[in-house]
Amino acid sequence: MNCCLLLYYDKFHTPLQLLEGKLARFDKVRVLDICIDQETSEDPLSFAQANSWEVKQIDARDKFCENYLLPAIKANAVYQGGYLLSAALSRPLLAEICAEQITEIGASTLVHGLAGNDQIRLEMAIQALAPQVQILPVAVLLGSQNKKNQEEYTISQNIWGRSIEAGSLNNPAELPVREVFHRTGDPYFPQSSTEIHRLQFEQGCPVALDGRKMKLSELLAALNTLGHKYSLGFVDMVEDGFVGLKTRAIYEAPGGTALIAAHRDLENFVSTRKQNNFKPIVDRAWTELIYDGYWFDPQRESLEAYINDINQWVNGEVSLLFRSGGVQVLSRNSADNLYDEQQAIYRAGQDFGVESSRAIAYSISAHMRAAVKRSKNQTR
Questions:
Q1: Confidence (pTM)
Q2: For residue 170, is pLDDT > 80?
Q3: 243-274: pLDDT as tens digits
Q4: Those residues with Cβ within 8 angstroms of residue 27's Cβ, 6 or more apart along the chain or in another chain
Q5: DSSP-based three-state secondary structure for 7
Q6: CB-based contact 257:84 (threshold 8 Å)
Q7: DSSP for 273-337?
Q8: CA–CA separation, 297 and 174 (whole Å)
Q9: Torsion angle of alpha carbons 84, 86, 89, 95, nearest 10°?
Q10: End-to-end CA gap in the chain
Q11: Cβ neighbours, 10 Å, residue 288
Q12: CA max distance for the chain
């Protein structure tokens, strides 16, 4: 039997009505609808059933949170200072589930509607997990959507974040209109009030909000609601894409922004100076690896070995101030912290003694004094 697996994304990326005739040559078509968003997705069931297509709907939100978002939180994953990898993190999950479905129904062909960076990410993963399957992008079946992209926004969203591209955003000098923003509310109308909330972590994993234990998907949904109220977690950026040159996008990730701010602060609190200097290098390597589509490369697990070693000590609580347009750490507490009030920087002079501090200053400034002396000799 000639079977096709159609990865449904939305009516723009995978227009079922337009694909109907193109898929008529297959004996069996299974439409795969994977839910990784906190909101109700479009339902392809009625149209698919009318065409005798089978529909498989999978709620993968918890799997997405535990297997993909949690490593991103531990890695403080923010690409080029703004993008929390919401789409990039979801593509290997989609590929993983697609590979399982391909095996289950014996599909010879996978049809998907992703393009650009996301097409590369998905197809790299599929080629690793299900190399036997033929991959057919919707653009091959229906033609390019480039002209349509000039007129309409393209939107990708899941529980971690929402990305908006194309349309008027193709012009980097164009101000974004209010209608673009959804998950972060309306940033043009600031909220005057503030709120303080407490996040608890165990080994780098967020486990509770204000003392109430939650699984990550529930905690993230609660923070997304808070973030919407305070227009938190959006960025308008021009990034360096893996495919092509620079691209402009607006990213909304209110819950993720709050989680990473709290995690980074607590991690700094419980780590040594050397670890705090080196961990961002590892984090950036992990982030760029995922952005470029290499989730299933063994380098990820190698990097995560160090990341997880650091995170075994990331236990405690962080207090966050939610205010209009941002979130700020106010305090942190951990039984595993490396802070000693008796050795705090502002007390070092009086505790060590003036003469001891002078000796330390003289010792550690040797290279600097030699360089200054050399420069003075050169100008004579």
A1: 0.91
A2: yes
A3: 768 999 999 999 999 999 999 999 999 999 99
A4: 1, 2, 3
A5: strand
A6: yes
A7: HHHHHHHHHHHHHHHHHHHTT-TTSHHHHHHHHHHHHHHTT--EEEEEEEETTEEEEEEEE-TT-
A8: 38
A9: -170
A10: 87
A11: 14
A12: 89
- Buried (b) or exposed (e) across 212-228, using 16+ Cβ within 10 A? eeeebbbbbebbbebbb
Tell me, what amino acid is at 274?
K
Of the candidates 59, 62, 124, which has an alpha carbon nearest to the alpha carbon of residue 91? Answer: 124
Tally of residues, the chain: 380
- Helix ranges (DSSP H) in 75-172: 86-105, 116-129, 138-142, 146-151
Where does residue 200 rank: exposed (0-12), middle (13-18), buried (19+ CB within 10 A)? buried
Token readout for 320 is 């966050």
Rg (the chain; Cα; Å): 25
Provide the residue type at 226 as one letter.
Answer: L
DSSP code string of 199-253: EEEETTEEEEETTEE--HHHHHHHHHHHHHHTT-SEEEEEEE-SSSSEEEEEEE-
Give pLDDT tens digits for 112-163: 999 889 999 999 999 999 999 999 999 999 986 555 555 688 889 999 999 9
Q: Name the token pair of 192.
A: 């005057």
Domains assigned to the chain: 3-145 (3.40.50.620), 151-333 (3.90.1260.10), 341-379 (no CATH)
